[in-house]
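input
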Amino acid sequence: MSENTMTLFKLLSALFEYPDEPLVHALPELMVLIGEDPSIAANEREALGAFAGWLADTELTEVQARYVKTFDMTPEHALHLTHHLFGDDRNRGPALIDLGEYYKSYGLEPGTNELPDYLPVVLEFASMLEPVEAKVFLDPFAKVIAQLGANLGAAESPWAPLVHLIEAYSRLVPTTYVPAAQPITDSVCHDHECETPVTWGAATPPAVRPMAAAG
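output
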């Protein structure tokens, strides 16, 4: 596991977006980055390289069709993480609002029309945090990410190994570290049944490393 997660999370964020021609054109550059960046661990390099190789060797229309079938047409593979916690439960709305406000507390607003729990958005935000902060941020989603990885693995999806890479970082860090802004969850929900809503604690801009300004 590498100490610097910025490059890894940025790569993963891009690879979980809908595949398009710019991504395919960027593959040679991405493969060089994957092979040479010292912050990427050996197991991460292997998984990323294998996925990039699959993208390079597969017709774009086939990749796009598989992406839609995998993530848009199969609920258990949804990339919106709170969907796995709440489904259509009324508690999902407040959780999304809290997560969006959590981003804003760091001076950031996602530059996308996607919901704040969309995995590429979550990973893009995590890439801007210090490694320990990123783990604390991802921890409330740890079991969801693990289940998503298991679901994709059972379907033999090429995206499954990438989710497994995220799993390694979505665990709580030692309690001696107190981040400037910390997500809070009172319970873990399964199969769209949630007894206690997931919330995100009030936060202030981090003192460790300033984030990019909103807008």
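quick obs: The chain has ten helices and two strands.
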